[in-house]
Task: inverse folding
């Protein structure tokens, strides 16, 4: 687990939220591990992968929704702010929550699709994973475009996921409870590098 930098954060959560509200539409900001992060604008393949997953979730669990680009309060004591590529939760789960950054309670799974930038290793494979674990989100699905794999993290405990499984594009990927969806990942081969 990455040590928290909340004791010496670059700014307060309130300052970050004010900055994020005034950022231009072409920039997406996150506040992870006490640091300001700039999330790159996704490419078309990234969007196609998120849409592929959204359709699979709708087909298997129509009572759930995969909310793209959902802002979530993450990390211990909700000190971080992450914009998940997808957050799986019951339909209308976020209705009634105010502001851009929702509490993670009730979110069944978060999803990140790696981008081709220099920060994706640290951001998607480490910091966001640990933030989602600290928030108690039961399943974290990382679609790793570089490795052409889906990595499923489960069983969050004390800021870490205790279980990790890795699956190649084309494998049937069983996402455990509370998600209970088996993904047919053959289509992802069409999106490979």
Result:
């Amino acid at each position: 687990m990455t040590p928290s930098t909340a004791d010496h954060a670059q700014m307060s959560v309130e300052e970050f939220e004010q900055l994020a509200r005034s950022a231009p539409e072409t920039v997406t900001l996150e506040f992870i591990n006490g640091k300001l992060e700039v999330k790159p604008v996704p490419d078309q393949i990234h969007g196609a992968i998120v849409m592929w997953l959204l359709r699979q979730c709708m087909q298997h669990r129509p009572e759930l929704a995969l909310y793209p680009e959902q802002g979530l309060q993450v990390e211990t004591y909700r000190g971080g702010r992450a914009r998940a590529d997808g957050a799986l939760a019951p339909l209308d789960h976020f209705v009634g929550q105010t502001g851009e950054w929702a509490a993670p309670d009730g979110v069944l799974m978060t999803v990140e699709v790696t981008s081709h930038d220099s920060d994706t290793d640290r951001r998607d494979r480490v910091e966001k994973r640990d933030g989602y674990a600290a928030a108690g989100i039961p399943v974290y699905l990382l679609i790793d475009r570089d490795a052409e794999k889906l990595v499923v993290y489960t069983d969050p405990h004390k800021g870490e996921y205790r279980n990790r499984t890795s699956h190649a594009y084309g494998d049937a990927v069983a996402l455990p409870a509370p998600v209970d969806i088996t993904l047919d990942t053959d289509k992802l081969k069409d999106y490979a590098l």
